[in-house]
Amino acid sequence: MPLAIYIGRRLVFLVVALFGVSLITFVVTRVLPGNPAYLIVGVQADESTVEAVIERLGLDEPIINQYGHYMRQLFSGDLGDSWRTKNPVTTDIADRWPATIELATAAAILSICWSVPFGIVSALRRRSLSDRLANVASGLGVSIPEFWLGIILILVFFFHLDFAPAPIGRSLGTVPPEVTGLYTLDSVIAGDWGALRSSLAQLALPAITLAITTGGPLLRVTRGFMRETMASHHIRSARALGVPERSIVLRHALPNVLLPVSTMVALMYGYLLGGTVLVEFVFAWPGIGKYAIDSIAASDYAPVLAAVLLSACSYILVYLVMDILHFIIDPRTRT
Amino acid sequence: MSVVSPRASGSTAPEGIGRVVAAARARPVRVLVAVAMMAVLLVALVWDPEWRELRVVLTVLAILIAPAVWDAQRREVRPAVAVMLALILLALIGPLFTRDPLMLNVGEALGAPGGDLWFGTDQHGRDIFARVIHGAQLDLGVGFSAAALAVVVGMPLGALSVFAAAHIKGGGLFDSVLLRISESFQAFPTLLLALGIVAAVGPSIPILIFIISIVNVPVYLRLTRSAVAPIVNADFVLAARCAGQPVLRILLRHILPNVKQVVLAQFSVNVAWAIQILAALSFVGLGVPVPTPEWGAMVRDGYEQLVYGRWWVALFPGLAILFAVLTLNQLSDRVRHTT
Amino acid sequence: MSAADGNGMTVPHAVDPAAPDGGEIPVLDVSDLTVGFGSADKRRSIPLQGIRLQVAAGERMALVGESGSGKSLTAAAVLGLLPEGAEVIRGSIRLDGEELIDAPERRLRELRGGRMAIMFQNPRASLNPVLTVGGQIAEVIRVHGDAGRRESWTQAVDLLAEMGIPDAGRRAKDYVHQYSGGMAQRAALAMALSCRPDLLIADEPTTGLDATLQQQVLELVVEQVASRDASLLLITHDIAVARAHCERTTVMYAGRVMEVGPTDAVVESPKNPYTSALLKAFVTVDQRRMYAISGVVPTLVGELGECAFADRCPLAGPECREDVPALRPVDDRLVACVKA
What we know:
The complex is a heterotrimer.
Chain A: H1 3-31, H2 36-41, H3 47-57, H4 63-75, E1 81-82, E2 87-88, H5 89-124, H6 129-143, H7 146-160, H8 183-190, H9 193-230, H10 233-240, H11 245-275, H12 277-282, H13 288-297, H14 301-329
Antiparallel strand pairs in A: 1-2
Helix pairs in contact in A: 1-14, 5-6, 5-9, 5-11, 5-14, 6-9, 7-9, 8-9, 9-11, 10-11, 11-14, 13-14
Chain B: H1 17-26, H2 28-45, H3 52-69, H4 78-93, H5 128-167, H6 171-187, H7 190-201, H8 205-228, H9 235-242, H10 247-283, H11 295-304, H12 312-337
Chain C: E1 28-37, E2 45-55, E3 60-64, H1 71-79, E4 86-95, E5 98-99, H2 105-111, E6 116-119, H3 133-144, H4 149-162, H5 168-171, H6 181-193, E7 199-203, H7 211-227, E8 231-236, H8 239-245, E9 248-253, E10 256-262, H9 263-268, H10 273-282, E11 284-285, E12 288-289, E13 328-330, E14 333-335
Parallel strand pairs in C: 3-8, 3-9, 6-7, 7-8
Antiparallel strand pairs in C: 1-2, 1-4, 4-5, 9-10, 10-14, 11-12, 13-14
Helix pairs in contact in C: 3-4, 3-6, 4-6, 6-7
């Protein structure tokens, strides 16, 4: 199948998925019990503001029309205003999105670095030491509540070992001039090594926390795929013709494993973009998740909904990009 | 996956506890009915301020899984089930032997573990050990209830949608619409979606159960769908159709028993998820109302004590979550590997 | 194609089993090979029980038996690639006189692909889906010699061309999913023969191919093996295939060798009742099997103390139950049956 057609088809799926997502967020806000007007303007709003919102959103109209209003709003990029910060939600989100991306990316990189090689090695020999260790590591990774793990890491590395800096956000020192919004990257661009060290230090514990919890499932999946591949006919065949074990693992098995593992990595990254909520909260990391929780605490609903919508959309987008990359990389899709 | 076949003739009738085991094995549909009953109980929760139904749910569950501890044919699963059973019994009976988890005692506030107070006290001087034990009832109860509700809704829906696509005219559309909706659902990060809904509706135990189960329904739908799809056109299903059996009966008697294993494994994982989501929601302040002992809420109390280095307040409830979730995940692994 | 035509080679036909091959060392000499699964206790399953198998230089030997008789496991043992949990209990495997059992893994690796090679059934699964076909062949060449990247690639392309793959230079850059089943089997043959092995083991090489392709691929295998003066061990459940392509045949049943001899003789006048039964099961009328051997293959738990076929054999008597019948010379062949 030519690439263009494939991408076209995936884009159609994308539209369908986004439609589904918008439908679900709409249902959550409008159909569930409670007056949506209050959710939008906040419980402390006065009568006239509420009236105005009802008028503006057409909340007194039939449900289909309401959905029309809702979609029109989404398309014009209007996610409402946050009455807590007094800003349009889109502005607030644009400020905080880089922080979440930085954390999610760092966590994903760390997670891949420990779990994928570990998964590969532990799959080579059943019941070996590395296999048993992998069992423990993946079991714990899957089961540890991340907010608690974050707290324990703070206790150990900040309070007792005095190894990590205080868990109070992204940077203690000066903020580098903004280019990408990622402090680590901006420090490198500005050549400010002090700022780089400071931002890396701030990033370390939250990223490690997430790397431990997301690495567990990734480790398990990698090991599963590797075991399956090592037992496959073509590996047996290569062995039977004297190909050395090193080449069997690195050249013959690894590419077959990395293709499906990369899908898992994409899923994990997509999940992380909306799944850093608790860790952001624990480490006072000023990203989307903390924004959502702070807004909930202040009964400010528009930002919550925007965060939910944004993370769902980014999940779908990441998945789409991965799918297309796969199509390009995997020789089996070429004809 | 093995397909249920008539039992080998000439097997001798089991006795004693073995009979109970055999009955549970031979009647997966009854297990389903019991699970459905648990879901019905949840409705009663709405009117009960003390959530006594959670105890009933846990009791029913203990009775359901107890036979597996003696089931010699499932040697792999037995230790995990035994630990699980012990945990449930601890949640049911443990609270009778502890102090009052709500009793305030400002004089003993923030006492380190030691003496009678094994896990120390929190900022209001409440016994953390007592609260962890009491919390088990709530966390396990809500976890199991939410997962049960998700199974009861998701599994028949998944089976029906495949079955409809294969055997009923126009069922294909139903199937694909359902599939697209559940795919969209799964694009949402579970916790954020749950947060969004709780924030809109307001937290209470029944609503938490309802929401946690909603976000899990698509999982069962797709799981059942993929497990049923290969057998929906199997000869024994076609034979049953030719014999004029009603659709519901075919689903219950012929198809669902064949997906039991997969669903059981997933159920166990899902209880673990449910507990994690509940704890997370409570941790950010959107879970159970304040004085109620709940593990996530207790970790939150501990988080506030972190600046003073009081580690015990957060440590023990967190360990409780870890232990429960680990047990459930192990159980799921074992069930999956003994197919 | 009958047994001896085509290559004009001298093949030791009438073998004196006591001193096989007239003193010449066979390419492959397996004796008393016994392989077990699991820990050494009474309930241990022993799927190979005292296998004897000799393939002389330039000879084409068929290894025939029902599925589950241990043919493929024998091949795996020869290559030193037994599945996890299986181990050689006793016996010897010699390749050109060199003992392979307990040989260091390093040495075995040199021999695999170098002096002995194998092609499996399902060729498309036995080539790596994410590496180019040419690249895989070239790698085997590099592993066993000191050819460089470019040189090994050229050799790989030449081999593919030799196996009858059109436009080999271009097709070498393709992946296996772009090959048809027959082409993939040709590529697998090229890979197996790339280092001029002394022995080629072909494990059901044509299963899954359609009838005309089967014939073509087998003829190619025989032709290429002959042109390299190599020996062939053809594993098949189809006695007709054995008859068409191999001079000699070893019949296996339940992990034991039942009869060894010139293929034509074995087919025309079987001396072991099992061989007769197997042949009858293969005589077909209107594509329908007319004869089924009654009874079931014994489970291979522990070592048998009697003839493995005794339960199903129409001729079985009390003497068959006394001991395991040894392979003994009868006329032009070896037979494991006390009645022969």
